[in-house]
């Protein structure tokens, strides 16, 4: 193969283009597409990825610089994965380099080897002739090395105690030389399967066989099953079939910190090496896990969002657990993408089946089932003997409540506790109370930097903003008039206190982000519930994430009303999902469960359809509403957002951008409008919404518009971003 004249390199810069370089003067490796290279860039050196080869550049040859070195002997991205990354860059309108940066672990982005390199030391001829008796430690190390004709690696030298210092001396004196080689991954275990799972229910069998029959071709499935219906068991069986074919599995989960149980279940079942990729890893751990993907050692890759880019070799199946979960969408900063949607594309490109699992599928996914694009597999029953819980509404306008807990709820709790059951109390707010108010002048503690109130954290004696992190001492008196202050409303901390007063002697556990701060905290709380040491669990959404508490028989949803009246068109979907997910914690064991939902709006159509016809009933109503209002999935939207230290600055930028846009019949522009929470972290937010009936014209429109927006001269403190398929319209 002749060397290409020009290498087109993707670099992590904000510029939406590739950069031309000449091949390196001395090439150690061929600069194949998908390999990393180190290049000079201005005064820096950057690591980029070879995107393509070209015959000529638009720049004169004298202006082109040479690649400094090619870092990989083999591409770190195969053609399919590279194509996915390229697609992601164009679909989300990001520079290719930015997407590549998200796809590579940090250390790989700074040039770390993609494979583990093994150094071996050999005795030299010079070493063989010298007498080292006067340096006993050097002598011992040398003797060990000289006795090994294939050389010795670090792990063999470790037996000699501190060998590094004497070895350094031996190398310096020329008695020992070293050679480096790529460490081959250990041979896979003879059997990748440790244990067979339980016999499957008929519905589980149907699901596993359908997925299995689709092997080696693209086939999207929705595995729709209530919590506890045995979805994970289906994943395990489907993965097992692929492992037996010698292929690998990619399993995506929303938040790995919250799902240690899933990792444990894979480890329990398989001897197949498992790579776990999530944001809680150190850079070194992340690099090590990524390397086991590159080398092919890992047979199962389990990870959060960015693991959708993991370089899995010989991919056989993709699983997206809890596909409805919002954390699959990166929506906060930088490269905003949906890992679930990219997983779908990756499966398509790789020609493999993909399973989206959920008890509460997103409306998008349900619509894809309705149009026949995805195959629905249902697990309508609970595994084992468990039966679905009974649900009832408590009308808060009719029943007295003590600190947010109604009398019927208290009575039900007494009943279940007396019956040896456990009780889960859900409230979607952490802290003690969401409001601190003056008893005299009406002052309410505001966040200085947000359109929000500060939350009382009584235990910590702090006032905190849950939007920007502002943190201040908790005052006892009104700063405005000096009168006493009052804590208004409830959060988990206060509910825990109230329950302790209502049920003296009953052990209570709390689960929220204030309790779970470091590794092991979650396991500790979950352990207390699982062992029965705690009888009541109070928690936020965190309680819904994948835990199996078989003895919980009663779930009380303290307040279902937040979100029922939000301006965000996705809010009802999220409320329904949370209620169903929380309710699903009840009655997972052999005892039947009961769910009580407290609300001031028992006649709200959403609650009514949810209670009368379950999530399916709700989804039908909600999809019809979306269609009537022309919201996704019946249209496609993109948000152009801006923020600045003043609202006019943000709005002005957006208005300017809007003026630059060419009129289009296919794309509707709305705004600029201030965001629902306009002021956040001392910045003002506004947005322009783009809406279209088809994707293609919307993307053509964006491709023409974005370069124009980039040309707008802005002050340095203005920030803007583009969000394709936004899931939150703040
Ligand atoms: P999901 O993922 O839908 O919440 P799981 O797969 O975790 O459901 O199953 C719930 C519980 O039922 C688990 O304890 C699991 O081990 C058990 N289980 C699942 N399928 C079976 C089966 N076919 N036979 C016996 N137990 C099963
Ligand atoms: Zn006051
Ligand atoms: Zn704030």
Write out the strand line-up for the largest beta sheet, numbering strands in chain order. 11-12-10-13-14-9-15
Q: Which distinct ligands sit in these coordinates?
A: adenosine-5'-diphosphate, zinc ion
Structure class: alpha/beta
Proportion in β-strands: 15-25%
What's the CATH architecture of the largest domain?
3-Layer(aba) Sandwich
Uncertain segments = none
What is the terminal-to-terminal distance?
A: 53 Å
Alpha-carbon Rg, integer: 29 Å
Question: Do you know the CATH topology of the largest domain?
Answer: Rossmann fold
Query: Could you say which overall geometry the principal axes of the C-alpha atoms support?
Result: globular
The helix count comes to 20
Q: What is the name of the CATH class of the largest domain?
A: Alpha Beta
Question: Could you give the topology of this structure?
Answer:
Blueprint: E1 6-10, E2 19-21, E3 36-41, E4 44-54, E5 69-70, H1 79-91, H2 96-103, H3 106-109, E6 117-123, H4 125-129, H5 136-146, E7 152-153, H6 154-157, H7 164-172, E8 176-182, H8 202-213, E9 219-225, H9 231-244, E10 248-252, H10 260-269, E11 274-277, H11 283-294, E12 300-303, E13 315-321, H12 339-350, E14 353-358, H13 363-370, E15 375-379, E16 390-395, E17 401-402, E18 405-406, H14 407-418, E19 422-426, E20 435-438, E21 455-457, E22 462-464, E23 471-473, E24 485-488, H15 492-502, E25 508-511, H16 521-530, E26 536-539, E27 552-557, H17 571-583, E28 594-599, H18 605-629, E29 636-644, H19 647-660, E30 667-680, E31 683-692, H20 695-711, E32 719-724
Parallel strand pairs: 9-14, 9-15, 10-12, 10-13, 11-12, 13-14, 16-28, 19-26, 19-27, 25-26, 27-28
Antiparallel strand pairs: 1-2, 1-4, 3-4, 3-5, 6-7, 6-8, 17-18, 20-24, 21-22, 22-23, 29-31, 29-32, 30-31
Helix pairs in contact: 1-2, 1-12, 5-7, 8-9, 17-18
Bound molecules: adenosine-5'-diphosphate and zinc ion (2 copies).
